[in-house]
Amino acid sequence: MQRMRRRNRLLILIGAELGGIVLLGLLYLLFRIPSSPLNSNQADTPPLTQTAPVVADATVNPRADATESTAHNPIITPTVTTAPAPTIAATTPYTVQEGDTLWSIAVSFQLTLDELVAANPKIDPDRLYPGDVVIVPTPGSTDISQITRQPTIESSQGLTLSQRLAAGFNAEVKLDTGGLRLRKGPGLDQDVITKLPDATPLKVLERTADSVWLHISLSDKTQGWVMSGYVATIGSLDSIAVATVAQKVAGDSNATPNATVAPQSVPRDEPYISGISAHAAAIFKAGQAKGNRASAFALIGDSNTQNPAFLQPLDAGNYNLGDYGYLKDTIQFFKGSFARSQSSPAAVGGFNTTKVLDPANTPGWCNKGETPLSCELRSTRPSVALILLGTGDQHTWQGFEKRYRTIVEFTLAQGVIPVLITKGDSLESRDNNATPGYINAIIARLSREYDVPLLDLHQAIAPLPNTGFNADGFHYNTPPDNKSCYFLGDALHYGYTIRNLTALQMLDAIRRQILD
Hints:
Blueprint: H1 2-32, E1 54-55, E2 81-82, E3 92-95, H2 102-108, H3 113-119, E4 133-136, H4 161-166, E5 171-173, E6 180-183, E7 192-196, E8 201-207, E9 213-217, E10 223-227, E11 231-233, E12 273-274, H5 278-289, E13 297-300, H6 303-306, H7 312-316, H8 328-333, H9 372-380, E14 384-387, H10 400-413, E15 417-421, H11 427-430, H12 438-450, E16 454-455, H13 457-461, H14 495-515
Parallel strand pairs: 13-14, 14-15, 15-16
Antiparallel strand pairs: 1-2, 3-4, 5-8, 5-11, 6-7, 8-9, 9-10, 12-16
Helix pairs in contact: 2-3, 10-12
């Protein structure tokens, strides 16, 4: 019995010894190994150090996405040469929009192209994309002495921006104009020499006293006159010499040399109006064969069209044309159609491209099975249809293009000229996740694809206070006295005034070029 007790006591002692050894081993490991980093991948990543500004080799892509992981983009040390960075002060970031060029951005912020290039040494002036961020310096704050331009990508005209400046060009034809007519003299009655494509480089030689017309020279030394509204210039037009030429007022056979023409007192090519082509004339001719009325137009839209402030005052005689007296003939020509903002079955508050194509939204007086669109075109038998839709498509923007195509193609099939109108808002971006300007980009592209007129209302109202909107950001505002068809003074600072003026200008251009 005693032998058994001694054996058990021995086993207990051996177990205690072994437990102590294990415990000592664990303690050793605990204090021997340092704490691990939170991210084990960082253990093999050398610390990053800042390097001096460099001019990268031409083969290195300067437009690489800055958000890409460095694990997939190892640091490469190219063969480079250091260069002092231009001195930049008081900068502001600007996100590039559809249609922007470095040239147009410089003009917008009253900068020289050199200043903008100096502030953005990694931006290729001839490769600018929507979403790029451009640094905008305060005018006069940038040291441009360090700029060394390297002409790279040729533009559609065969000249880089650097080459344009070197050749003395100080302007270019704006983008999305549909082409700018070069005339023999400063006036719409002057013969057309040729049509200049978008982005054509120009050398402005002189201007008329009212700055409406510019005397320009092309790269092949051809000279002529163009409307200033279609031209983007570097610097103010005030610095351009005033021409000593006879400017003839349209329709006035007794105009005297050097006559002073009030701004916009004659019909002019507006930069927000484009696409009035021979195709539009063919559409009109087909519509006349169907019995359409030349002096009638239809309205297709939402609450921004149904509002009594839109066009209706023109039929009531409640308007003042101010410097736009040339529009009076168009008001008389289309008299009776302006009040359709209150009666069109296709212009109703809350409408979008889905509802205007749905027979369930057609009023009882329309024919059975008609959509609001087909009812409006049948009952009106117009030559033109003003179409402003898209605001109400902010939640269904993905299908907008397909539905909008249906509207355009149905209108064309009726022999009606569809006027596509961009909208001032971008609710599909503000309220959803569409890219900014998504719907307007489709409208502009389809205008070119179908070769039909485009009224870029978005461009026209962009400079207005609050961009021409009420506080909600999508209903156009009206002057305090509700005089939305008074085209003068402070009234021109409101959304509905500009909406009415631009719509009337589009109708006037179509009347003069197609219907008369």
